[in-house]
Design goal:
This protein is α+β, with helices and mostly antiparallel strands and 289 residues long. The protein contains four helices and ten strands. The protein has two domains: 166 residues, Lipocalin (Beta Barrel); 91 residues, Substrate Binding Domain Of Dnak, Chain:A, Domain 2, CATH 1.20.1270.180. Strands 1-2-3-4-5-6-7-8-9-10 form a ten-stranded antiparallel barrel. A hairpin with a 2-residue loop joins strand 7 and strand 8.
Length: 289
């Protein structure tokens, strides 16, 4: 039963109590703030790190499907087996967001009954920090994630499970380019051009949206110029690292494509989406192909 599972997890959490509480709990009858699923895009990706008693844990969040983001969590044992897993949804509901999850044992038997689940309602949301009642998700630097869950207990001092994750390294694969080295180079260069053209289109839309705020437009342009300088230096370093290898051009172009796609998503999320339920001005950018 869920109650026994929560108590078992609480016993583990008490072995390493936190000095400061990450989580918050809403007062009875609280109202969740307006929010949409695209405000959680910073959470997308594969996260790996330490969980209960220092054993390995993995969390993975997929891009939104409609108004839902689907995630999975795996807590390993010290021996490398599965202690338990979770299937998670962040859902737009009632003009805000809720996080719902189900727990499963290693043999896929559920903690909750067939219709049961654990639900966390949104308390507050800002970029890289989502506080649900009893659960917190926040960035800890550019590629680190902290997840804290408050355990059910009658103890005067609340206990939390704390998970610290690093974003898994992004793949610099060949992006479906095949053939000879020259053919793959040409294919990758064409993808890079498409990625650059899309970024330029999204940047132009961001500038047009803020055309009545010239100081802001100047800062957006300055930010993009800084990105271009970073992209050039970073990918030149990657290219140099493969000096003497026939794959160096492919690796350098893969670096550029990945960074340009990330920049495009940042432009979209920051300047082309809205805090309310207004649809984004352009569709969410995926990976360049």
């Amino acid at each position: 039963m869920m109650a026994r599972a929560w108590m078992a997890a609480l016993a583990l959490a008490m072995a390493a109590p936190l000095a400061a509480q990450e989580t918050r709990v809403g007062e009875q009858g609280f109202t969740s703030p307006p929010a949409t699923i695209h405000q959680m895009l910073w959470l997308e990706g594969l996260w790996q790190g330490e969980g209960i008693e220092g054993a390995r844990a993995t969390e993975n969040w997929l891009p939104p499907t409609g108004t839902t983001m689907v995630g999975t969590f795996i807590q390993q044992t010290a021996e490398g087996g599965i202690m338990f897993s979770e299937h998670m949804h962040i859902i737009e509901e009632g003009g805000s967001l809720v996080l719902k999850l189900k727990h499963f044992n290693a043999d896929l038997t559920g903690w909750e009954d067939k219709a049961g689940m654990v639900t966390f309602r949104l308390l507050s949301l800002e970029h890289c920090l989502a506080r649900f009642s009893g659960l917190t998700l926040r960035c800890d630097g550019s590629d680190k994630l902290v997840v804290a869950v408050r355990m059910k207990s009658d103890a005067p001092e609340p206990k939390e499970l704390l998970f610290r994750f690093d974003r898994a390294e992004r793949s610099r694969g060949f992006i479906n380019c095949e053939g000879s080295t020259v053919e793959m180079n040409d294919c990758m260069a064409a993808i890079r051009e498409r990625a650059s053209e899309r970024k330029a289109r999204y940047l132009a839309a961001a500038i047009a949206r803020n055309a009545d705020r010239p100081e802001l437009v100047a800062l957006i342009r300055k930010s993009d110029a800084a990105f271009e300088a970073y992209r050039e230096a970073e990918c030149e370093a990657v290219y140099t690292d493969y000096e003497g290898g026939t794959i160096r051009t492919i690796q350098g172009l893969a670096c550029e494509i990945g960074l340009i796609d990330e920049r495009t998503r940042t432009i979209w999320q920051t300047w082309l989406t809205y805090m309310d339920t207004t649809p984004p001005e352009l569709p969410a950018p995926g990976r360049s192909r």
